[in-house]
Design brief:
The chain is α+β, with helices and mostly antiparallel strands. The protein has two helices and four strands, in the order ββαββα. Helix content is about 30%, strand content about 30%.
Length: about 70
Amino acid sequence: MDTQKLILHTRFAPNGTVVEISERPEGLTPQAWFNFLSDKAGDVYQTLAGGRGVFRLTREELAALRQAATPAA
C-alpha cells in the first residue's frame, strides 16, 4: 500500500534561522516548530539548495506531531 506524503516546506535566513515553515501550529514560532520537527522527525528531513528544506510526513504523522507540539491553553 502506497502512503502519500505531505511536504512541509522550510525557508531559512542567511544566518540559519527559520523564517517560514508550513503547517505551523498556532502559538509556535517558525524556529520552534522547526526545532520540534527536527527532534521528532529529523529522519524525514531533506536539505535543499537556496536556504530551503522539506519534511516529508503522512497526514497521520503530521496530525500527531501538531497535537504534541501545540502549547496547552
